[in-house]
């Protein structure tokens, strides 16, 4: 019996050691990619600030109404859920889905029909398993999002938003993603992206301060038609980059914890295997002594 226990524990030790190597490799890969993800976010910041100032200037210094900035009543809302394509990131995918479900319940309580747009295989699998309808899905390589993916998502959402209510359009768009705070903290984040509320980059004029004069060519309407879609694309791209950094940080932390747990299991199994070996040796000695006593008798 003891010999059998030894074989079981040794097999568990070997399998746990293999898992430990995999967890450690995943941890190192995630750690090496976090820096690149944060660098991409920082590199996109100047463009984001510039286009935000431009859109703010047009929206602030003109009196035109644009479809993307008008508050219209409606009973349909689009929700974009940004999750991960891969697992092994702890509670990261589950926290996003929980926040999306909370938002969905809130919108439905307000009498609105929710249309789901889902980016990331984990969230797609969640809604597919539960038989939930999704308007469109994307599996885009969540660790390394591209501007092309952001443009594709933005175009699909803009097309839906610009449709009228009779054409099954939506009156608002919410995005559920993860906000990267630091390497330890990543928070589920909800933002209403449409209709636009552009208030960044514009400061109120002080007393006796002359406001700048703007001349928009060919017209303010044409400028907004060109800038606002780009603004939405940039916002979605920023969301994807932030989610990528959050996913990698969560995966590194989860894999570090898994590696530590594997080491604890290996120590436990090693101790149990040694105890089984000692019991086996003790039993063999007892059998030898008993046999010797029998022969002497």
UniProtKB/TrEMBL annotation:
Pfam families: ATP-synt. Its main location: membrane. One of its GO terms (molecular function) is proton-transporting ATP synthase activity, rotational mechanism. It is found in: Cell membrane; Membrane. One of its GO terms (biological process) is proton motive force-driven plasma membrane ATP synthesis. It is a peripheral membrane protein. One of its GO terms (cellular component) is proton-transporting ATP synthase complex. Gene3D superfamilies: 3.40.1380.10, ATP synthase, gamma subunit, helix hairpin domain. InterPro entries: ATP_synth_F1_ATPase_gsu (IPR035968), ATP_synth_F1_gsu (IPR000131), ATP_synth_F1_gsu_CS (IPR023632). Keywords: ATP synthesis, Cell membrane, CF(1), Hydrogen ion transport, Ion transport, Membrane, Transport. PANTHER family: ATP SYNTHASE GAMMA CHAIN, ATP SYNTHASE SUBUNIT GAMMA, MITOCHONDRIAL. Produces ATP from ADP in the presence of a proton gradient across the membrane. The gamma chain is believed to be important in regulating ATPase activity and the flow of protons through the CF(0) complex. Belongs to the ATPase gamma chain family. F-type ATPases have 2 components, CF(1) - the catalytic core - and CF(0) - the membrane proton channel. CF(1) has five subunits: alpha(3), beta(3), gamma(1), delta(1), epsilon(1). CF(0) has three main subunits: a, b and c. This is ATP synthase gamma chain. It comes from Promicromonospora citrea. The lineage of its organism: Bacteria, Bacillati, Actinomycetota, Actinomycetes, Micrococcales. The gene is atpG.
């Amino acid at each position: 019996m003891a010999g059998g226990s030894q074989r079981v524990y040794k097999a568990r030790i070997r399998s746990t050691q293999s898992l430990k190597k995999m967890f450690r490799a995943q941890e190192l890969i995630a750690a090496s990619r976090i820096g690149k993800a944060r660098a991409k976010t920082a590199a996109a910041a100047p463009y984001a600030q510039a286009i935000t100032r431009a859109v703010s200037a047009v929206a602030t210094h003109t009196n035109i109404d644009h479809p993307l900035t008008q508050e219209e009543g409606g009973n349909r809302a689009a929700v974009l859920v940004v999750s991960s394509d891969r697992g092994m990131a702890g509670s990261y995918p589950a926290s996003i889905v929980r926040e999306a479900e909370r938002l969905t319940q809130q919108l439905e309580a307000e009498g609105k029909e929710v249309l789901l747009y889902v980016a990331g295989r984990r969230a797609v699998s969640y809604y597919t398993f539960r038989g939930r309808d999704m308007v469109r899905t994307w599996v885009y390589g969540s660790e390394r999002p591209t501007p092309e993916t952001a443009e594709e998502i933005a175009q699909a959402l803009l097309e839906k938003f610009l449709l009228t209510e009779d054409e099954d359009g939506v009156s608002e768009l919410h995005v559920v993603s993860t906000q990267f705070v630091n390497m330890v903290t990543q928070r589920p984040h909800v933002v209403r992206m449409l209709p636009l509320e552009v208030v960044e980059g514009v400061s109120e004029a002080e007393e006796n301060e002359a406001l700048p004069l703007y001349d928009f060519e060919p017209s303010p309407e044409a400028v907004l038609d060109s800038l606002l879609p780009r603004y939405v694309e940039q916002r979605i791209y920023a969301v994807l980059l932030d989610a990528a950094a959050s996913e990698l940080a969560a995966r590194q932390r989860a894999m570090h914890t898994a590696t530590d747990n594997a080491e604890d299991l290996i120590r436990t199994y090693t101790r149990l295997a040694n105890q089984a070996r000692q019991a086996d040796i003790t039993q063999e000695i007892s059998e030898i002594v008993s046999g010797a006593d029998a022969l002497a008798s």
